[in-house]
Amino acid sequence: MSPFSILITIALYFVVLYTISYFTGRKADNAGFFSGNRRSPWYLVAFGTIGAAISGVTYISVPGMVAVSSFSYLQMVFGFAAGQLIIAFVLIPLYYKMNLVSIYEYLENRFGVSTYKTGAWFFFISKMLGASVRLFVVCIVLQLLVFEPMHLPFILNVFFTTGIVWLYTFRGGVKSVVWTDSLKTFCLIVSVGLTIYYISKNLGMNTRNIWSLIGDSDMSKTFFFSNINDKRFFWKQFLAGVFTTIAITGLDQDMMQRTLSCRNFRDARKNMITGGILQIFVNLLFLTLGVLLYIYISDKHIDLQAEGIVKADDVFPFLAMQFSPVVGVLFIIGLISAAYSAAGSALTALTTSFTVDILESSKTKTNDQVASIRKKVHAGMAIVMAIAIFIINILNNESVIQTVYKVASYTYGPLLGMFTFGIITQWKIRECWTPLVAIVSPIICLVLDINSKSWFNGYEFSHERLIFNALFTFIGLCLLIRRK
What we know:
This protein has one domain (about 5-400): Sodium/glucose cotransporter, CATH 1.20.1730.10. The protein is built from 20 helices and no strands. It has helices at about 5-25, 30-35, 40-70, 75-95, 105-110, 115-145, 155-170, 175-200, 205-215, 235-250, 255-260, 265-300, 315-325, 325-360, 360-365, 365-395, 400-410, 415-425, 435-455, 465-480. Helix 3 packs across helix 14 (about 325-360), helix 4 packs antiparallel against helix 12 and helix 14 (about 325-360) packs across helix 16 (about 365-395). The model has no long low-confidence stretch (mean pLDDT about 80).
């Protein structure tokens, strides 16, 4: 595909997206931006959340990683589904009972202002880094396919990409996000399904042949129980999936903001359970695609190193563009659907949390003043995200999906520890020290991570960093318990 045809594809996609955003968000007030006026249909939220949970990171990285990790990622996906059950039956009723706009208001009611602000700032850092890494995926692909052939700098690419996200979310917030996410999820699933179909057809296989071939492949091995030091060990992956979902979904303003836009907690619960089940099947599609990509490479005797492909994240983009114009168009649509779904909701959530939690505008300002502040914060968040993407581009040196989860394990761990302590205990704490605990816990976890192989007989930390990080935060809060 030529750079011009790619730009045309993106432009047509965003004409449709912005049209939906305009009509769904044109009458949105502050309540519509922050919570969708609590009128979102649960099934629409459940379907749209799939695209937000998957993001451009999954779209690029999961198919490429099967050569090294096989289907081991599916162990973590099973953990995701189990974690969403816990969110559905523990956190969602609590949030609705307290009628929260920002979920971090729970920390203020349970502990006090210091813990509330700590939670809000940790979310801000976590989500800004996570969303920037996810949107970075789109930028590097667009740079390779569009901006570099046109001799345009990466910084222009970054501001173009974040500008689009700002454009279709600034008016309606979560009220628009719920509807646009559904469109993006539909495009994502269709693009992956049709890509699998076209590659299978090129290899001369039908549906029955595909599953037989994948089942016989070493890359389809899913469960790993033999070696606890292996990063693919089942209980590492599964438990990490459970706690990662609780942290980056149940304790994340971005993911919960859509859920809290449902009419009541029963609808929100149905949304969460349905989304968890559907996520298993969608991720299985991505893994299937990955196996087919490597089978195609082997069948056509393609030398990836000779083509300059050294990262697993580059395999799918390279083959999609080389395969055929149809697959190239499907790849572009799927990528922007996945990536912009996550980025749009993240920008909305960052705006909500900064306005409500950090500036506390809704407590002291009129509705008109809050709207004015919200619009300025929204633009500011887009600029900060653009700067973060540019810095990530300079520092990037490993698979993007691993980067996202590694960042999450350090930044969401204190949030998980604080919420767990608040929910399962009744103790009061000297909460002025909470920020110190939240900072020290990731540092301890980092020291253990760096030295784990020498200290623990070859054991390597994987995504379970999040669990230990939360545990250290929980223990730290126990040391702050007020005896009287």
